[in-house]
Amino acid sequence: MTTEQPPDRVARYQRRFNTLFAEYFDTLGTTLDAPSFSRFTPDCLDLLRDLSLRGGKRMRVVLLHEAARLVSSDPVEGLDAAALSIELLQTHGLVHDDLIDDSATRRGGPTTYYAYRDRFPRHPRAALALTVLAGDLALALSLRALLDAELPVAVRQAMVEVQTQAAADTFVGQIVDLERDFAPAVPDDEVLHEVADHKSARYSVLAPLKLGLLAAGEQPALYEQELRRYARLVGICGQMRDDYLDLFGDAATMGKPTGTDIREGRHSYTVARLLSVASGSERVVVEAALGNPSCTPEAVAAVREIGERRGVAALMREDMRRYAEQARLVAAGWRPRWREEAVAFFEGLPRWSVDRAG
User: Fold this and answer.
1) pLDDT tens digits, 13-22
2) Most buried among 40, 79, 196, 222, by the most CB within 10 A?
3) Which of 179, 201, 218 is the last residue of a domain?
4) Dihedral, CA of residue 99, residue 104, residue 108 and residue 109, to nearest 10
5) What is the mean pLDDT of residues 171-178?
6) Would you give the DSSP letter of residue 222?
7) Which of 194, 218, 242 is the last residue of a domain?
């Protein structure tokens, strides 16, 4: 059995996929049917390439390959096409997320929306439209990557169905994520779990699992409920971790400021727990900062101090580890059916994902 740890596997898959992704964009300009006079189309592809290659841990690619290894240790056809599809869908999500959030930076560079705003400072509607269309193009390319794959028709069709469903689930997740923040009451955990499941778990965990199994000749529909449960639990862990780090994380380590959820008025796991335990005077401090885009670092620090004093930080860490353990137990149940080494990877992944620093 290999002793390779999850971070090492992530790095190995990341290096290989980044080369594949760059080669894909190098040839895309010659395969995409666009009028020869168009300058905006190559510019759009350059922005998508820049965003796609600028960073990202490629965890979805890792899950895809490890899911195939649950079934076979031999090379599996179709994984490259599936990996491209997964990451192009992610690019689509990043473009639209940054537009929804009015974010200026992503992965150490300008977002697609702000890049277009810089190009068209006197035409804001054109910048908005081109951003939406860039995200839409990435989604279409995601599905085309699978349709062009040299795979049996039935496998190719099943993969497209997985990605189409993942995209639809994610869009619904984005809608209910916005809806959650409009609700007058603090959301309970079940609402937060549903948002995390639809918005991220289904396309970031469940879809890669299914695609890897399909490529390896397995029928994921036979194990739908346990795959969904594993993905949901990992997705909850990941969203809790993101929400925790947004207030209690180290800005230097993460490469972005803390307090974004507070300033934007998001009813995240952390914010919901803060509001549920804060005293009268503490709640006034939290609510004054919540949804205030001009909230100062000092005000965020005051909210953070309340969260630490009231045990929210410790509670979040405990909850993340509890859900990670539940996910581990689901994966452990795969051992009689699938390969030991790959099962062990999925067992260890939830806790590693929770414990990593940035």
Assistant:
1) 899 999 999 9
2) 196
3) 218
4) 80
5) 95
6) G
7) 218
